[in-house]
Every structure is written in C-alpha cells, then in structure tokens.
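agent: user wants the full assembly modeled, not chains individually. Plan: 1) parse entity lines 2) check alphabet per entity 3) run joint structure prediction 4) return tokens. Steps 1-2 passed, two entities, 226 residues total. Proceeding.
--- entities ---
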Amino acid sequence: GDSVTQMEGPVTLSEEAFLTINCTYTATGYPSLFWYVQYPGEGLQLLLKATKADDKGSNKGFEATYRKETTSFHLEKGSVQVSDSAVYFCALSASGSARQLTFGSGTQLTVLP
Amino acid sequence: EAQVTQNPRYLITVTGKKLTVTCSQNMNHEYMSWYRQDPGLGLRQIYYSMNVEVTDKGDVPEGYKVSRKEKRNFPLILESPSPNQTSLYFCASSSYRDTGELFFGEGSRLTVL
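--- prediction returned ---
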C-alpha cells in the first residue's frame, strides 16, 4: 500500500539556518503530495501541496518540489525563524483527495534564537 | 470564523468508563474524519463520514464508534476505554470541492488509566 517516510527528528536549528526535512513516498500511479504543519497546541494545517511531477509547492517561505524520479518531496526553507518551530507532516493522496490522505510520522522542528 | 471544534481538549478517565469526544464544524463540510496521533506513528484514521448517516471504518476502528446524525457534528464514542486508547485525537473535515485540504480541530488529549 501507499506509505510516506520522513526523516527522523527532532531537528534543532538556530534562527536563520537553512532547513531541509526529507520525505520519500511509495505509491502506485501519480499521487498528490502535501506538507502539513502542527504548531504547539494546535491542529494540523495545510502548508503546501503539489499535484504532479516537477510541480513546486510554496507558502510562507517554505518550498517542496515533487520529484517523481526519486519519489521525494523534501521540504526546504532558506532562513528559519523561531516561529517555525512545529511538527511537520508529509502526506500523500493517491487520488488527490483529502479523504484518502496517508501521513508520515512527523518531524519535530525546534528553532533556537 | 471557520473552525472545527472539539471537546473536551483534555480528559483523564479510567478503564471501562464510557466517554464521548464531540466534534463540530461550521463550514458546511460533507466529509468528516477522526484521527489518532501517537509518537512515531503519525496520524492514523479511525473512522470517517462522507455525509449524514454515512460512516465507514478507517485504519484503526477497533474500540471506537461514531455517528453522523447532523451534518455539522461527528462525535467519537469510546464505549469501554482501555489504556491503549491513550492518545491525542483529531477531528477533521473537508468540503465537496476537496482540493486536498483537511481542516483540523485543535485536538483532544485522552488519558485512560
């Protein structure tokens, strides 16, 4: 079945550092890919998404490119802020529907001032 | 304000004492779902509902019940809670447009002693 593998956390960075959180997936066909973010004490919210190969999703300075050849969707940000401290979840949907999301295990990011 | 509201946010209970976690959304969404979040396992779907009176099992339905008598409400029922149901629970919803975005509640942390 479909699955998502994220890099193990936690990840601790200093403010203004470069961030990469790795995400690879296993799925048949051409799934849609998502990054969700969970800030402390809150529910998850959609950060960005990409629906086809070579698409780049971006939001709030975060980017991720859908790489079909490497089945990856790594999350990047050039300069993190303390306010980016959160848990980040990579997810896929074989049909593109939110009703069929498969989530990764999440990566805890802490940004220190 | 568009939101998904869960109650209670925190609950400590004992084995076997029936409890209900309520979920309500004010966005007129057709689809609603319950997830549990456990360390290292990400989010796992418990039950979902495509519309009023239509519910179905997710990946981990054992020990849970749901009902969908009204479009806005989707309560999660633990008839006889056990310690392995100690977890963080999230309710989520999405609209018929289904762009891939799930809207989450803030979560309900349940401890079963």
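agent: reporting back. Chain B touches chain A at residues 4, 31, 33, 37, 40-43, 48, 50, 90, 92, 94, 98-107 (CB under 8 Å). The CA atoms of residues 22 and 75 of chain B lie 4 Å apart.
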